[in-house]
Design goal:
Helices cover 38% and strands 24% of the residues. It has helices at 57-64, 87-94, 112-123, 128-141, 158-169, 188-205, 216-221, 240-245, 249-255, 258-268, and strands spanning 17-28, 31-42, 46-51, 72-77, 80-81, 97-100, 176-180, 208-212, 225-230, 233-238.
Length: 269
């Protein structure tokens, strides 16, 4: 299935590795944050990336996106080494990525529609009317009412801000979306609705989802695959069942605590 940006390679199939991180090391002011970390995500997966606060989850995300430098290692997106990519290939890769930053990170002086149009203005040369139509489509796609298009972020609830930020992340019909703590700060009902939306969009838009989260509900109900960050690398990865069987102390405490057991029972009911 070819997305709207028209740059998907013909050889890409289901099960293909969309993102490959190999032996990545990142330090900030001489403090080692990630040490030879490796991670893969397959096409169509929803990956939940979890770890203790301050472990480096957002650092890895920003490193993958090129917002932070790494000391060593290789990052490939769509089988292209981003460090060796030409400017044109890098542009094509960027157009295939969507990002929802923590807290939404909407531009406060722009309306929801204008926020959604930011990637379109940066990468595409489209008539204003067409951009308006496309932005309204994305706004509707994430479950916002049409009148939200002309509202400013200050006029939105927390859940609406996250949906507006997701609409912006989907502006270019990306192949993979990166979500940084997307349900943080939301009430349980809004968080559950957002999780359902992510799964629905994955299924209808052929998306791959890389989700940094600490939300157990999200991990149990939305994620196909889970990777746990600890000791500066991926400690454990696999399904929720794999997490529940792990004897790694932090993983055991996190996934087999009282609340996790309640969630597991509910999921299996």
């Amino acid at each position: 299935m070819t997305k709207g940006n028209g740059v998907k390679a013909e050889h890409e199939d289901e099960g293909e590795t969309v993102l490959s991180v190999r032996d990545v090391t990142v330090a900030i002011e001489d403090k080692l944050i990630l040490d030879k970390l490796s991670l893969d995500i397959k096409r169509g997966e929803i990956l939940g990336f979890v770890g203790a606060s301050g472990a480096g989850k957002s650092v890895l995300l920003r490193t993958i996106l090129g917002l932070m430098p790494k000391q060593s290692g290789t990052i490939k997106l769509f089988d292209v080494d981003v460090d060796k990519a030409s400017d044109l290939d890098r542009l094509r890769i960027d157009m295939r990525l969507g990002v929802l930053f923590q807290h939404g990170a909407l531009f406060s002086a722009l309306t929801v529609m204008e926020n959604v149009q930011v990637p379109m203005r940066e990468y595409l040369d489209l008539p204003r009317k067409l951009m308006d139509e496309l932005a309204l489509l994305k706004i509707e796609l994430v479950g916002l009412p049409p009148d939200a298009a002309q509202k400013f972020p200050s006029e939105l609830s927390g859940g609406m801000i996250k949906r507006a930020a997701l609409a912006r992340a989907l502006a270019l019909d990306p192949d993979i979306v990166f979500l940084d703590e997307p349900t943080s700060g939301l009430d349980p009902i809004s968080a559950a609705e957002f999780d359902e939306l992510v799964v629905k969009l994955r299924d209808t838009m052929d998306l791959t989802v890389y989700m940094v989260t600490h939300d157990l509900d999200t991990l149990f109900t939305a994620c196909d695959h889970v990777a746990v960050l600890g000791k500066k690398k991926v400690l454990v990865e696999g399904t929720i069942d794999d997490m529940l069987k792990s004897e790694e102390p932090w993983v055991k405490s996190y996934f087999r605590g009282k609340r996790a057991r309640q969630l597991d029972l509910a999921a299996r009911a």
